[in-house]
Amino acid sequence: MSTNLEHLYRQVIMDHYKSPFNKGLVDDPNYYTVHLHNPTCGDDMTVQYKVDHGVVTDIKHQGTGCSICCSSASVMSITLKNKSKQNALNIIEAYYKMLTNEPYDKNILNGDAIAYHGVSQFPARIKCATLAWKAIEKGLLENKEE
Amino acid sequence: MLDVKVIRQNFPIYEHNKDLVYLDTGASSLKPKAVIDQVDHYYSNLGVNVHRGVYGLSYEATDLYEEARTTVAKFINANFDEVVFTRGTTASLNMVAQSYLSVLKEGDEIITSELEHHSSMLPWLNVSKKTNAKLNYVKLNDEGRITVEAFKDVLTTNTKVVALTYVSNVMGYITPIEEIIKLAHEVGAVVIVDAAQAAPHMPINVKSLDCDYLAFSGHKILGPTGIGVLYGKKHLLDQMEPSEYGGDMVDFVVKDNAKWKDTPYKFEAGTPIISGAIGLSSAIKYLMSIGFEAIEAHTKELHRYTLEKLKDIKGIEVYNSKSDTGIITFNIIGVHPHDAASIFDKNKVCIRAGHHCAQLITKWLGQIATLRATLYIYNDYEDCDRFIDSVKETIDFFNQF
Question: Transmembrane stretches, by residue range (chain A) (predicted)?
Fold first, then answer.
């Protein structure tokens, strides 16, 4: 099997795909909900998060899509949980930079999210790897005053 | 079988991509040198406007452009003045639907199907919402086909418009359109045929079909992108309002009135896609030199060969094993189409993954998305083998996790 594909489909990614963290939505008005989908491929993602005193204390997700899309929702949830809103936005930016092979701040982006570095070799898949991240980013930017 | 080695010599893309396996003709076909040369000839040697200039170059460009209309007319057995050049099938179908906004009213009915490409049904969904005309869907049979019987079930004396595909871009089925047209005409309805997938595959004869409108695109029949055709019966086009107003579509203008040119020119406002039209003409001539009989025999044989090999592979679902054309729509069980597509991509096997601009049939199949391979004149057994290898590799690759 080509090394390239192994860069894309790392074991850690497939583990998150098969056994995701924080999957399932809640019916709780304290959570903010953002729904995004990718009309060209049919990937569909709903992300919920809760902010307490400027800190993202919980993140939930539910969606359908490819392994890169679904696993990245799980990874996003564990990466951004318990981060301040501004910190979360900075991490999201670092994640986008990593996916486009630009220099990014390795001090703030670490853990399982690094496994997605290989996506930069597959430009067609960047939109899969970012859907859940775009969803929470949208929510955080829409609700600056929270 | 066609001599694919010889055919590929006519397609420069194979010079630059020696190991290309192109199985996405359903989305867009490759372009032969004859088409590229003709487009190049226009830009290199002519490069001027049509219908306007009173100088030699403009006459020459106009001649080529109008010759292209003649070529298209012969290709579908239409009259010269029934051929309108458009941007593509989407533009053609929208143009017709728009013109019915002022014709249809509450109580009228439109028939379409879940097999349609978005460009065949969405324009009518819009007309239906704006006019309150009812939109009815032909119930597909167990295989996902449009049948004459199911069509009869939705046809009423209130039916005014029937908008159906000739060949499905997902299932590859040929619609029994000739019989449907006869029935529709009995209740006085007009029939609009989406021939985007039919045009590369089979001869089209608008006179024997007796269809009222028919549309297809250049880029799916070896021609350039950005050019398409709307055929309409002369008396219908004469009644139809122009969809755009501007240069070249008008006969005379006064401050409070204007008179349009005759069809087809009243539908071609502005500078047309000159290079596209004459490139399309070359594409049609190229296709005719091969002949539809040979095209059909070739794609059918490759289709049979590929299906036979797919049968032996466990873990895949083929949704249209009875396809009438070279379209194979399938999924690898447990693997999302976009995950699978990356393996095919790595192996330089170009297939389509997604809902193919036909969300209704994808839903009908109970899928979020599917994979689609289309076989055409430049494909050979080796392409089919490499496609099969990629299918197997995808299954093995995702099994390891």
Answer: none
